[in-house]
Write a structure and sequence with these properties.
2 domains, single chain, 3-stranded parallel β-sheet, alpha/beta
Length: 327
């Protein structure tokens, strides 16, 4: 059980972020247990093919997730220090990890289990251990995540915008309890079940609370440490749209009213999405999507909001009503 005590100032300082290296690390779970990640099977097939064709150290890569518990050494997923961290900055922070901490994080992940072969050999030299792990994580990022990062980031940013809207509409308690089915908010304390082997409680006490959507976690997860900024990673909304390749069929009557392209856009906006992501879903150019979105925005059928460098679009109540009438 994880519990964080939050004061009024802590709630006011609650922030969202998405992390390239968090997605890189947690995606290893899907490669190890594809039976539990059916939504990611298209990515799993492509990534396994790419790894088989490359020269990446897959033995070390496989040892970064502990069998059974699924723990990952904390230092390869740095706590966010900005809403949209750059992967190069995150990799720099991994490489600057004190070697003793890197080794301690590896041993903590394995707990009472013996280290497997590659990690055991590297453990005698913490500097070599840290550098070897940083190298394999960077190579894996370029192979498995970077080619898809644009669409992945769109889903993550859409989740952050949705929860920001939830915060504005229903307050911080609604956001916190939406992170996981086990989350409970009572008397200034957030509790949630993270892992059967984790029992941790702490006061946020001005250190900030980062909420990080992720595509590969099936429940809330949280790296913990008494001196670290509290961070909760939680399953992002909209993962089911991540690997879609076929555009949805535009509704009939609505297509006659606003035109087939605009009807297809409205149907695709089941959650906030960027122009680039919508273009991918519909197999059209971003410029065509931008043109139709501008018309839909002027007529009040979609709204738009900026998330970092990206503008996200969503259906308005009027747009929802049109689609409901179509049904």
């Amino acid at each position: 059980m994880l519990s964080y005590r939050l004061g009024v100032d802590d709630l006011a300082d609650m922030r969202f972020a998405c992390s390239p290296l968090l997605e890189t690390a947690t995606s290893l779970w899907a490669l190890k247990r594809p039976d539990k990640y059916a939504l990611h099977l298209p990515w799993i097939r492509r990534t396994r093919t790419a790894l088989a064709a490359g020269d990446l150290d897959t033995s070390l890569l496989g040892e970064l997730t502990v069998g059974g518990s699924g723990w990952i050494p904390d230092f390869i997923t740095p706590r966010p220090d900005s809403p949209l961290p750059d992967v190069e900055d995150e990799l720099r922070r991994v490489r600057e990890t004190p070697p003793e901490k890197a080794l301690a994080d590896v041993r903590a992940a394995y707990a009472s289990r013996p280290l497997p072969l590659r990690l055991s050999r590297l453990a005698s030299d913490p500097v070599e251990l840290r550098n070897a792990i940083a190298d394999v994580v960077e190579a894996y990022w370029h192979t498995a995540i970077a080619p898809h990062w644009g669409r992945m980031r769109s889903v993550l940013e859409a989740d952050m915008v949705w929860r920001a809207q939830l915060l504005a509409r229903d307050g911080a308690a609604a956001v916190l309890t939406s992170l996981d089915p086990t989350a409970v908010w009572r008397a200034g304390e957030l509790t949630l079940f993270v892992h059967q082997d984790l029992e941790f409680g702490a006061a946020v006490a001005g250190r900030g609370l980062w909420l990080v959507p992720t595509l590969f976690a099936q429940h809330a997860i949280s790296p913990v440490g008494p001196d670290e900024p509290p961070t909760i990673a939680y399953p992002a909304r909209g993962v089911g749209t991540l690997w879609e390749s076929r555009p949805p069929r535009p509704p009939g009557a609505l297509a006659l009213l606003v035109g087939a392209p605009k009807a297809a856009l409205l149907l695709s906006l089941d959650g906030p999405a960027s122009t680039t992501e919508l273009a991918r879903r519909l197999s059209v150019t971003p410029s065509a999507v931008s043109h139709h979105l501008a018309v839909l925005h002027r007529t009040g059928l979609v709204s738009r909001a900026r998330a970092g460098r990206v503008v996200l679009y969503a259906r308005t109540g009027v747009g929802d009503a049109l689609l409901s009438a179509e049904d």
